[in-house]
Amino acid sequence: MLVTGASRGIGRAIALAFAAQGDRVAVHHRNSPDLAERLRAELPGDGHVVVRADVADPAQARRMTEEVATALGGIDVLVNNAGIFVHHPITEVTYEEWQAVWRETLDVNLIGPANVTWNAVRHMGRGGRIVNVSSRGAFRGEPDSPAYGASKAGMNAMGQSLAIALAPLGIAVATVAPGFVETDMVTEHLKGERGDAIRTQSPFGRVARPEEIAAAVLYLASPAAEWASGTIVDLNGASYLRS
Ligand code: NAD
């Protein structure tokens, strides 16, 4: 299995979960060779590999995917997890900054998964699984990070389209859409009063742990999950349900 953006956060938890069930894992990173190598060494079992690429770069995404297929003898599961979340309120940033963030966010969060997916599908047989890590921002709005919300809405649509396109090949495609998860990506958001407000959105009074997202990904990538193809799993601890 290949998980992108695996050196930390949700991707790291996903790599650990797959290795714990006996899978060989390709730990992908962009610029964190030490963290990725440390994780590879920590994973239970043998045969795990570390691969590097900027997923937004089509040539790098292709080379990386081929390396994984060669090392693992194919790609049975792809988890498109790598992503960025940039603060760019429309009333505060310059036009140039606005342009740059939109381009980078769509490149990394949407074109990146599209690049990796096109290549991975060519190394996948029947029973292959693709799981995309999207976000609640796709359907709830991200006022200070509109490019992020748009990129994740695009990812949801891509997943649904490919679920139809790849079903005849026996490949299932599903999406998880978590709200806030305790990782470095959102450390700043979870501080102080803002953090308290975010935590109390859930009646559990907390945000998600990376392992809870990994557990859902594990199911969606399992042989039993063909019938979950095309779904978008809203993992939000009963948040947003109060009237
Ligand atoms: P994170 O910042 O810890 O991890 C993101 C990973 O993506 C990093 O390892 C980073 O190196 C990698 N990455 C970024 N740009 C890349 C590129 N161009 N090429 C290759 N790799 C790149 O954050 P996380 O919280 O673990 O996020 C993982 C995924 O979960 C992301 O897609 C994110 O949007 C999504 N998500 C996170 C939250 C949250 O609250 N943390 C909520 C919903 C969805």
UniProtKB/TrEMBL annotation:
rRNA processing keyword on record: no
A Gene Ontology BP annotation from the UniProt entry: fatty acid elongation
InterPro entries: NAD(P)-bd_dom_sf, Sc_DH/Rdtase_CS, SDR_fam
PROSITE patterns: ADH_SHORT (PS00061)
Keyword Transmembrane helix included in the entry's annotation: no
Coiled coil: none
GO terms of molecular function: oxidoreductase activity, acting on the CH-OH group of donors, NAD or NADP as acceptor
Keywords: Oxidoreductase
Family: Belongs to the short-chain dehydrogenases/reductases (SDR) family.
Protein name: NAD-dependent epimerase
Species annotation: Sphaerimonospora thailandensis
